[in-house]
Amino acid sequence: MTRSGAGLALCALLACSDPPRPQQPTPAPAPDAAEEGTGLEPDRPLIEEVPEEERIAAIEVAMNQLAPVANQCWAAAAADDFRLAGDVRAFISVGAPAGPGAAVEITANTTDDDSLGRCLAAVLAAYPWAPPLAGQGIELPFHFAAPAMQNVVDRLFVPHRAQAGVDIAVLLDETNTGNPALSLAEVNSRGEIKVGGREAERLELWTMSSVSIVTIRVAGGKQLTAGPGDVIIVPKGARLAIEPGPILQATVAFVPGGREGTLRAGALPGKAVALTGPLRKGEPQVTVVKADTGKLFPRPGGATTILVEPPAAGGAVSLSWQQIAKGAKVPPHVHAKETEVLLLDGGGGTMTIAGVAVTVKPGSAIQVPAGVEHSFEATEDTLGLQYYTPAGPEQRFKKKP
Question: What residues form DSSP beta bridges with 206?
Answer without folding.
Answer: 232, 252
